[in-house]
Specification:
Blueprint lengths: L4 H4 L3 H14 L10 H29 L4 E5 L9 H8 L2 H10 L4 H6 L10 H15 L4 E6 L7 E5 L2 E5 L12 E12 L2 E6 L5 E6 L2 E13 L6 E11 L5 H5 L3 H12 L16 H24 L7 H4 E6 L6 H12 L4 H11 E4 L10 E3 H7 L1 H21 L4 H7 L2 E2 L5 E3 H7 L3 E4 L2 H9 L3 H6 L4 E3 L6 H7 L2 H11 L20 H26 L8 E6 L8 H17 L8 E6 L7 H19 L7 E5 L5 H7 L5 E4 L11 H7 L3 E4 L5 H8 L4 E3 L4 H9 L4 H6 L2 H11 L12 H9 L5 H19 L2 H13 L6 H13 L27
Parallel strand pairs: 1-2, 1-10, 2-9, 10-11, 11-15, 15-16, 17-18, 17-20, 18-19, 20-21, 21-22
Antiparallel strand pairs: 3-4, 5-8, 6-7, 8-9, 12-14, 13-14
Helix pairs in contact: 2-3, 2-5, 3-4, 4-20, 7-34, 10-12, 12-13, 12-15, 14-15, 22-33, 23-24, 23-30, 23-32
Bound molecules: N-[(cyclohexylcarbonyl)carbamoyl]-beta-D-glucopyranosylamine (F58).
């Protein structure tokens, strides 16, 4: 079967026709009556047709060639808007621009209409989407499994200086990128009890008799690679009632109960939990995790069997990656499916399970390590609890045999935490059930082995490895920063988009004064654009010539936005005292959401806004320092922030940030970094050269040592007059119309507890910022360092991360998907990177 050019052609004429036809035939609109959103949807659907052609071909290829497939299991994804990305990857930006322009529309305007799927909290979800992009671009057979939350991460507004959460209604106008697959529906059992029996062959069998059953329905979104045939898919599950009406209840006139059942079932995928680090032991969250895991595994097993493959070879065809512990129930669920539902013996099933899974850890923070009360776990998943116990029994027997008499070690390793209440330790389940475990940056992987997984390292040293995170250069350079992408491509060609190491060829240009000038002009233009956006959205005017100093990420005490604030106030008080103080003009920008229930994080947002209010209005410092909180940080907004940064703040307490990926996005766009030796900062500093990185602060080892000595934060205060002054200033109520109570909890916490070592790092941070200011006064030196930073960021492409997973964890090979182009000459009309927009 061949498809006509109307649905897949890539010329301007084809796209124009397709856009108009879709607008009319699918949306029932003529251009004169169409809303901006109609126009966007028509274009998105027209482009989706082109993408789907790749998708169909890709699936056929995988089936024909019996591919080994990566299944990425993640409770969160943050893909960002799809339209621009698909235009870039298809290589038809220019054609689409012209097509819509000939119809009187502007492509940038249409692209801007797209609402992004906010199906994640932060770094972990965005990493999953960078990985989906790299898997497709590297032509690796893969599928991403996740949850189709009806309400994603809340939209953030700032009112009277405080965060206000607004429900995210991303589906309100429909989602043109997804295709529902009602035929792909799986049953999900919940609650109830188990019944043991002996079957006809005398084998011990267990039957799970659930209390409730819901079903999961597949929604597919195509994920196209960059200029390749490969188009993988992201399959998200939506929960529904098994029957939309309980007819039995309805027959008896109990209409409300019938509808109630439907509502309760759909609850499972209603909303994303908006906590970025602290885990809450909520029943619904466990239901979500199980729902994700069982639908995904049933789907894989179905495909496996349809293709006539034997179940004891499941692991040879599927490499399943657990994105943190959220999907780690998969270990118990695959055992249940293989043993209870498909009749495999325990040992075979266990071998298959362990060879199938690998687990990525993203945190060392104790409050983020998942553990479920045994009572709650057993009530929802009675059979899984039995399976966890059996896995544990066998595992601990092995431990006892190796470490005779070492009961303390057995207790530490057990899947069940019995030290005060009984909990299932999800990280232990993931480690025991996987053949590989990795951290997300070198330092993090080392700390993981030395701390939370120390006993497992002693047991299975070969299981542990590191895969440092990366980010996709398609979205975070080619799409986010077309002028810089063009400048780079003009000098070294466009190969960097697929092979980021080629940025190295920019190094000699750091010494070229004319190139440096162009580089500065590009940066200035990005800052001007951002300044206009800020003025429009917040009413604050900022000077594009000032140093743009950005800290954008979730708000958390360990990320230490308040350390940044202490520095701002230090400058402010200095300027107030001595207006002659030489301070190069700086604009401090913050963005990020706080978990709705995280009191201290929300107070930090209020503090930032209170400081902005005072500083921006004070004639004594106006135009020398400005402070802005940019509301509603998400992928779409972030793409406007990275290109405009001169300085990237990566100032977490050493040992707390597993990797960080914002650090990579900033550096890739030419920002210099001020940072601690934490997460991937360590490797970024090595790569760009220590002379191009502003380093300060305690090391992870020093932090651990301070903790062991239980140092008093007030000792630091006693020795530092400037720090005392800043803390007194905040406590005085000067930032809160004289109200001394508002910021008291924050100041008291720093003075008496300071769990994230803000005070001991204060002096080093302020001094390091002085070095930053001094360097900024020499624009040629600054630009040179900016160019060298970008030139040396090749290693931080998510393509490199994915290659490492393929080689060291998954043992999966790329597979070329051949595609006959609809118009063989279409791609040659556009230069990637140069006309990416
Ligand atoms: C982040 N974790 C790490 N968790 O904090 C960051 O250092 C790392 O770069 C990134 O993962 C990618 O590896 C993170 O974003 C979450 O958002 C979870 C959401 C669900 C609840 C627990 C935290």
């Amino acid at each position: 079967m061949t498809l006509g050019d109307l649905r897949t052609g890539l010329t301007v004429a084809d796209l124009k026709q397709s856009f108009l036809d879709t607008l009319f035939c699918t949306l029932g609109r003529v251009p004169s009556a169409a809303t901006p959103h109609d126009l966007y949807t028509a274009l998105a659907l027209a482009i989706r047709d082109r993408v789907l052609k790749h998708g169909v071909q890709t699936l056929e290829t995988y089936h024909e060639r019996d591919a080994r497939v990566v299944a990425y299991l993640s409770a969160e994804y943050l893909p960002g808007p799809h339209l621009a990305n698909n235009l870039l990857n298809l290589g038809i930006w220019e054609q689409a621009r012209q097509a819509v322009e000939e119809l009187g529309c502007n492509l940038d305007f249409l692209v801007e209409q797209e609402e992004e799927p906010g199906l994640g909290n932060g770094g972990l979800g965005r990493l999953a989407s960078c990985f989906m992009d790299s898997l497709a671009s590297l032509e690796v057979p893969a599928v991403g499994y996740g949850l189709r939350y009806e309400f994603g991460i809340f939209d953030q507004a700032i009112r009277d200086g405080a965060q206000v959460e607004i429900t995210d209604k991303w589906l309100r106008y429909g989602n043109p990128w997804e295709i529902v697959r009602p035929e792909l529906t799986y049953e999900v059992k919940l609650g109830g009890h188990t019944e043991a029996e002996t079957d006809e062959q005398g084998r011990y069998r267990v039957r799970w008799v659930p209390a409730r059953v819901v079903q999961g329905i597949a929604y597919d979104t195509p994920i196209l690679g960059y200029r390749v045939g490969t188009c993988n898919r992201l399959r998200l599950w939506k929960a529904e009632a098994v029957e939309s009406f309980d007819f039995a209840a309805f027959d008896h006139g109990d209409y409300y109960r019938a509808v109630q059942d439907k509502l309760v079932s759909e609850n499972i995928t209603k909303v994303l939990y908006p906590n970025d680090e602290a885990i809450q032991g909520k029943n619904l969250r466990l239901e979500q995790q199980f729902f994700l895991v069982t639908c995904s595994l049933q789907d894989m097993l179905r495909v496996h069997q349809v293709l006539g493959r034997p179940l004891d070879k499941f692991h040879e065809k599927w490499a399943v990656q657990l994105n943190d512990t959220h999907p780690s129930l998969a270990v118990a669920e695959l055992m249940r499916l293989l043993v209870d539902e498909h009749g495999l013996d325990w040992d075979t099933a266990w071998h298959v399970t362990r060879q199938t899974f690998a687990y990525t850890n993203h945190t060392l923070l104790p409050e983020a390590l998942e553990k479920w009360p045994v009572s709650l776990f057993g009530a929802l998943l009675p059979r899984h609890l039995e399976i966890v116990y059996e896995i544990n029994r066998r595992f601990l027997d092995e431990v006892r045999a190796r470490f005779l008499g070492d009961d303390a070690r057995v207790a530490r390793l057990s899947l069940i935490d019995e030290g005060g209440g009984r909990y299932v330790r999800m990280a232990h389940l993931a480690v025991v059930g996987s053949h590989k475990v990795n951290g997300v940056a070198r330092l993090h992987s080392e700390l993981l082995k030395e701390t939370v997984l120390r006993d497992f390292t002693a047991l299975w040293p070969e299981k542990f490895c590191n895969v440092t995170n990366g980010v996709t250069p398609r979205r975070f350079l080619a799409l986010a920063n077309p002028p810089l992408a063009r400048l780079i491509t003009g000098q070294i060609g466009d190969g960097w988009i697929k092979n980021l190491d080629q940025l190295r060829d920019l190094e000699p240009l750091a010494d070229d004064a004319a190139f440096r000038l162009e580089w500065r002009e590009v940066k200035l233009a990005a800052k001007q654009q951002l300044a206009a956006r800020i003025a429009e959205r917040t009413g604050v005017t900022v000077d594009p010539a000032s140093l743009f100093d950005l800290q954008v990420k979730r708000i958390h005490e360990y990320k230490r936005q308040h350390l940044n604030v202490l520095h701002i106030l230090t400058l402010y008080l200095r300027l107030k005292r001595d207006p002659q103080t030489e301070v190069p003009a700086r604009t401090f920008l913050f963005a990020g959401k706080a978990a709705p229930g995280y009191f201290m994080a929300k107070l930090i947002i209020r503090l930032i806004n209170a400081v902005a209010q005072i500083v921006n209005c004070d004639p004594a410092v106006r135009d020398r320092i400005k402070v802005v909180f940019c509301p509603d940080f998400n992928v779409k907004n972030a793409q406007h922030l990275y290109p405009a940064a001169d300085l990237s703040e990566q100032i977490s307490t050493a040992g707390k940030e597993a990797s960080g990926t914002g650090n990579m996005k900033f550096a890739l766009n030419g920002a210099l970094t001020i940072g601690t030796l934490d997460g991937a900062n360590v490797e970024i500093r090595e790569a760009v050269g220590p002379e191009n990185f502003f380093l300060f602060g305690l090391t992870a080892a020093q932090v651990i040592e301070r903790q062991a000595r239980s140092c008093q934060p007030c000792e630091v205060c006693e020795q530092n007059a400037a720090l005392r002054e800043v803390l007194d200033f905040i406590a005085s109520g000067a930032l809160a119309d004289g109200d001394t109570s508002l910021f008291r909890p924050l100041v008291d916490n720093l003075r008496w507890c300071d769990p994230f070592h803000v005070l001991p790092d204060y002096q080093a941070y302020v001094e390091c910022q002085e070095q930053v200011s001094a360097r900024w006064r020499d624009p040629e030196a600054w630009t040179r360092q900016s160019i060298l930073t970008v030139a040396r960021m090749g290693r931080f492409s998510s393509d490199r991360s994915i290659r490492e997973y393929c080689d060291h964890v998954w043992q999966v090979q790329p597979m070329r998907v051949a595609l006959a182009p609809a118009n063989p000459d279409a791609d040659s009309t556009v230069q990637p990177g140069s006309s990416a927009r």
